[in-house]
Amino acid sequence: MKFVRAFGRFWWDFIVGDDWRVAAGLGGAFALTWLLEDNGITAWWLLPLAVAALLLESVLREARASD
Amino acid sequence: MSSHVVIIFLATFLASGVEAVEALTIVLAVGVVRGWRSTLIGVGAASVVLAAVIASLGPALQNIPIGTLRFVVGALLLAFGLQWLRKAVLRASGYKPLHDEAEAFTREREQAGAAARRPGSEMDWYSFTVAFKGVLLEGLEVAFIVVTFGATQGRLGLATAAAAAAALVVIVAGFVVRGPLARVPENTLKYAVGVMLTSFGIFWGGEGAGVDWPGGDAAILVIIAFMALFSLAVTRELRRRRLALRPAEAGG
After folding, report:
1. Closest CA of chain A from B9, distance in Å
2. Chain A residues close to B245, C-beta within 8 Å
3. How large is the ipTM?
4. Do residues B74 and B159 make contact, with C-beta atoms less than 8 angstroms apart?
5. Which residues are CB-contacts of A10 (< 8 A; sequence separation ≥ 6)?
6. pLDDT at A5
7. pLDDT tens-digit profile of B150-191?
8. Can you give the three-state secondary structure of chain A, one letter per residue?
């Protein structure tokens, strides 16, 4: 049980890390990109913009918390 | 030689180098204080595990259809790379302390000196465990990058060679310096690796989600430039904000 918990913890830290909102946002951005492309709408611009927005929001939140 | 090959070599080399510097600090501190035999056995055991991870996962991943592989690898790289980039931005702007190898070396030495030694035993399990864990945990991130970059581009050999070359350079430098490599611009390197991992994550993840990038493969260079410039602008703005709120830090 201890091993399973440690294994799960390792993968959580590896993929999600300190900010679960970023990981959730990435999931949403991928889903939206796939949905748009699947319906014939060009969506190459979506991921770079979503990543930039998620990075900005995450570091700003952390900065505000420590100000 | 395509730009992808150069970037994959560079990203793997830099990521491996940064992690090797951190592992070297731990190994040196334990070895100097408690002796080298058990420490080096720990390093060897961790290296075998890492080699087994790469040797088993790398070829296995190459059997997955390329579209699925790029989507999964891209999403994982993006989640992982964005964590590196996020921390790098916070460090560069002063909101997180910079990683200091000299300080880490002192801390590890103190802990190694304070830990009890089992009398009569040839094997020092403290040294073995700390060296094993240090090399394995730092190395797993590198193994992940090697396997994903290598499998997605069909360049597992190149990615492995880049990681091994970086580890070798760090080991030789550590031997020459006989101390932690505190002068390596570790935080800057982590920043660069974060930008590259994030950019490749966007590129491959996008392709996996059905995106047809304008300009084909050359789009990766534009994405890297965009992420680098954007994160630098964010860093600059955060630093300006911090200094405006804490003017006392501006002088020092």
Report:
1. 22
2. 67
3. 0.91
4. no
5. none
6. 82
7. 887 788 888 889 999 999 999 898 888 777 777 778 888 889
8. CHHHHHHHHHHHHHHCCCCHHHHHHHHHHHHHHHHHHHCCCCCCCHHHHHHHHHHHHHHHHHHHHHC
Q: What is the pTM of this model?
A: 0.81
B80: distance to nearest CA of chain A, Å?
6
Residue B252 CA to residue B248 CA, distance in Å, equals 8
- Shortest CA distance to B53 belongs to which of B166, B145, B158, B155? B145
Identify the residue whose tokens are 């002063």. Answer: B94
Rg of chain B over all Cα atoms, to the nearest angstrom? 20
Yes or no, beta carbons of A59 and B223 under 8 Å apart: no
> What residues of chain A lie within 8 A of the CB of B224, using their CB?
none
Q: Which token pair is B244? A: 């405006």
Q: Give domain limits for chain A.
A: 18-66
